[in-house]
Amino acid sequence: MADQTTPQDPTTQHPDPDTQTAEQIPHPGHTDDMRKEPDHGEESYVGSGRLEGRRALITGGDSGIGRAVAIAFAREGADVAISYLPEEEDDARETLRWIEQAGRRGLLLPGDIRDEALARSLPGRVVDELGGLDVLVNNAAYQMAQTGGLADITTEQLDRVLKTNVYAMFWITQAALPHLSAGATIVNTSSIQAFDPSPGLLDYASTKAAIVNFTKGLAAQLAEDGIRVNAVCPGPIWTPLIPATMNADKVEDFGADTPLGRAGQPAELAPAYVFLASQESSYVTGDRILVTGGRS
């Protein structure tokens, strides 16, 4: 990635992920399986102490957007716990390596957050190991594109999408609330799909719209407690989830329909999460930041 201190052409700032040669990979998708690995900010993100001393929990923190946020948070001074599926252990340990390289404590929390008991246990485990919880990032998500649209969405798939994207967010946030005090922040990962749903991702898009609604409603509930709740809405971002869940023809064109003409990189999302988690956004709650390459 180019030096962030000087102006760059956003159409070429990041190399195109070369989606036309990308191979489909097995779900849930491992970073090492990708022909063109994403940029998580490993070599570019420079922190400035904006989250010094805070303790954060990031669901789905092993790869993609979650890894980029974990790296950025650690370099901003936060200790970071990440939850992830057990089959993503290799990716999780790589993220942990970057957290610790930044001089911060990391905590690995494997498990499937569709399990209510496990999901509800996560905030308490973070408090026990890291001494508190100041930032919750509900980022984990599941999608699986369907060429046949609504008719092809099975009850099994719908159940998995809803439990991963919505139920777990409710469970984890409910369990986190007793540990959060004034000044704490919650950042939820929604999507441009909440406003501009793709026909093949109807179930996933519906959950992302629910996350926007949840964000606004919870922000109103918690405002008097001094706890802020916001969302980030990514556009087409190049992560393992894409070649692991989308048809080859969709992968080939991924991101090409944005005004900037390319897919985004996870590194380009992380600053939005840092902003919403830090005191710099102290007068922002119940809102959302779109990082979409110009799609609206």
* Quaternary status: single chain
Low-confidence stretches: none
The major β-sheet equals:
7 strands, parallel
In terms of DSSP E residues, the strand content is 5-15%
User: How does the overall form come out from the CA principal axes?
Assistant: globular
Descriptive notes:
The mean pLDDT is 89. The two termini are 25 Å apart. The protein is an alpha/beta fold and 296 residues long. Strand 5 (185-189), helix 5 (202-222) and strand 6 (228-234) form a beta-alpha-beta unit. The protein contains 8 helices and 7 strands, in the order βαβαβαβαβαβαααβ. It has helices spanning 64-75, 89-101, 116-130, 155-176, 202-222, 241-245, 248-252, 270-277; strands at residues 55-59, 79-84, 106-110, 135-138, 185-189, 228-234, 288-291. Strands 3-2-1-4-5-6-7 form a 7-stranded parallel sheet, sandwiched between helices.
Give the helix/strand layout:
Blueprint (H helix, E strand, L loop, with lengths): L54 E5 L4 H12 L3 E6 L4 H13 L4 E5 L5 H15 L4 E4 L16 H22 L8 E5 L12 H21 L5 E7 L6 H5 L2 H5 L17 H8 L10 E4 L5
Parallel strand pairs: 1-2, 1-4, 2-3, 4-5, 5-6, 6-7
Helix pairs in contact: 1-2, 1-8, 3-4, 4-5
List keywords for this structure.
296 residues; alpha/beta; 7 strands; 12% strand
Quick structural overview:
The protein is an alpha/beta fold and 296 residues long. It is built from eight helices and seven strands. The two termini are 25 Å apart.
